[in-house]
């Protein structure tokens, strides 16, 4: 009797326990844009573009510093520092330009997010020209940073 009553109660509890609604696959891929409306996608894309523009401005300032022979200072810090800012800047960047563009261990960079935003839903972004150019661009910053650490502005120019 005890088994029957516990078993019946257990079965009834399972039958009448509310469950979460099932979430079906929407076919839009596993990108940052899946399940978003066109308006929210456009808004995200615009935010990424603004952040990339700010990163490019910092890179131009770094180029001016390198041309004048500097291998340290504000332009280098604004572009290469790896530490998180206390507060995001006016375009929402929580990190310096390179970390914002390329990403960190915790976050994806706005560069790859913007490049991937051109992918069609459900299609991988890896073969997009924008993603290929982004990947080539990201590899150019390591030699510049290394030359700056060594104090070699001439090498940083190349």
In brief, what are we looking at here?
Helices cover 57% and strands 0% of the residues. The chain is mostly helical. α2 runs antiparallel to α3 (74-80), α2 (38-67) packs across α5 (110-116) and α5 packs antiparallel against α6.
Descriptive account of the structure:
It is globular, with a radius of gyration of 24 Å. The chain has 158 residues and is mostly helical. 57% of the residues lie in helices and 0% in strands. It contains 8 helices and no strands. The longest helix is centred in the N-terminal third of the chain and has 30 residues, at 38-67. The model is unreliable at 1-19 and 21-30 (pLDDT under 50).
Order of helices and strands: HHHHHHHH
Assembly type of the chains comes to single chain
Straight-line N-to-C gap: 85 Å
How many strands?
A: 0
Q: Report low-confidence residues grouped into runs of 5 or more.
A: 1-19, 21-30
Helix segment tally: 8
Which range does the strand content fall in? under 5%
Helical fraction equals 55-70%
> Structural class per helix/strand content?
mainly alpha
Principal-axes geometry comes out as: globular
How is the main sheet built? none
Query: Mean pLDDT, nearest integer?
Result: 75
Rg estimate, integer Å: 24 Å
């Amino acid at each position: 009797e005890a088994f029957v009553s516990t078993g019946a109660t257990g079965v009834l509890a399972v039958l009448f326990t509310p469950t979460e609604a099932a979430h079906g696959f929407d076919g839009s891929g596993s990108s940052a844009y899946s399940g978003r409306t066109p308006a929210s996608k456009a808004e995200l894309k615009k935010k990424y573009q603004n952040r990339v523009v700010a990163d490019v401005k910092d890179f131009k300032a770094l180029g001016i510093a390198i041309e004048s022979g500097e291998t340290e200072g504000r332009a280098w810090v604004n572009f290469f520092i790896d530490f998180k800012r206390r507060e995001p800047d006016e375009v929402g960047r929580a990190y310096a330009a390179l970390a914002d563009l390329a990403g960190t261990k915790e976050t994806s960079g706005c560069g790859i997010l913007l490049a991937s935003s051109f992918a069609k839903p459900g299609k991988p972004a890896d073969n997009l020209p924008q993603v290929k150019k982004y990947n080539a661009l990201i590899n150019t910053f390591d030699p510049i940073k290394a030359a700056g650490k060594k104090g070699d502005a001439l090498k940083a120019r190349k």
